[in-house]
Amino acid sequence: MASTGIDAGLAGERRFMARAMGARLLPADEERSLAVRWRDGGDEAALHELTHAYMRLVIALARRFTLYGLPMGDLVQEGAVGLMQAAARFDPEREVRFSTYAGWWVRAAMQDYVLRNWSIVRTGTTASGKTLFFNLRRLRARLGDLDGRLSPAARVAIAADLGVSEDDVAAMAARLSAGDRSLNAPVGEAADMSWEDTLESDAPLQDEIVMGVHDAAVREGVLARALTGLNPRELEIVRRRRLSDEPETLEVIGARLGVSKERVRQIEGAALAKIKAAVVAEVGDPVEAGIV
Predict the structure, then answer these.
(1) End-to-end CA distance of the chain
(2) In whole angstroms, what is the distance from residue 219 CA to residue 207 CA?
């Protein structure tokens, strides 16, 4: 039953494409008249006739993008969306044929669809990435370098041709050479290890976490004891200037304490000197002790 439904869908798709390819080509004056009727009067019949005449353009472009492994019907649908966008923005007063203008919109819609669906990993998110994605195979074929890994000479030539970096060329070549792969897929013939097992974690090791917590506690204790040697004014300035998530300026603190900002600077300097002396007296060189 499901197979019958799919076959019927494919047959309907083929009939639609056959009708579109057999549509009458519009002369320039008729094309302009339809565009004016749609732009000025919102004539949907004119819009339908205009877009139907150029579905052949959508189908022709869709065939070029099938090499990326996506369904022809989906590509045609995306291209039709681009065709409608072109019709909405087309200015019939300019001396440009609608097919020329619409071609850009149709191609852009299909390219965006390919980039969104070719892989579960988003590809071509930058201008250089998009350029590489849609031109790398063509340039490699022109250079006769389609087999195996991209050669250094081809990488240099392609980078110069497209105005991108050699690293970007190498990365895209590697990306296009292999499809999506499940992290649970087995590695090797033994199948006792998956690709997930080969991934390196960026998280710190357990002993590093424990050491970090211990060192932080030591630093906090040393600093707390050093702060006890400051008088109330010095302590307030150090807290507001050095220990706050949003440090205050010398001028703001000076206004609060009723002194000049230069005086605040002097008090801060003296307080920091006291803190340093207290730390050195307790642990020696703070760098060697791992305090800073």
Answers:
(1) 73
(2) 18
Each residue's pLDDT, cut to its tens digit, for the chain (292 residues) gives 455 655 665 676 778 777 877 778 888 899 899 999 998 988 999 999 999 888 988 999 998 888 888 888 899 999 999 999 999 999 988 888 998 999 999 999 998 888 888 765 566 567 777 777 777 777 877 887 767 677 888 888 888 888 888 888 877 777 776 655 666 667 766 667 776 777 777 777 788 888 888 888 888 888 889 888 889 999 999 999 988 889 899 999 999 889 999 999 999 999 999 988 888 888 887 776 666 5
Give me the phi and psi of 95, to 5 degrees please: -85, 60
The candidate with the shortest Cα–Cα distance to 148, out of 174, 181, 118, is 174
Task: Tell me the pTM.
Answer: 0.51
- CB neighbours of residue 111 within 10 Å: 19
Task: Give Cα 21 distance to the centre of its chain.
Answer: 37
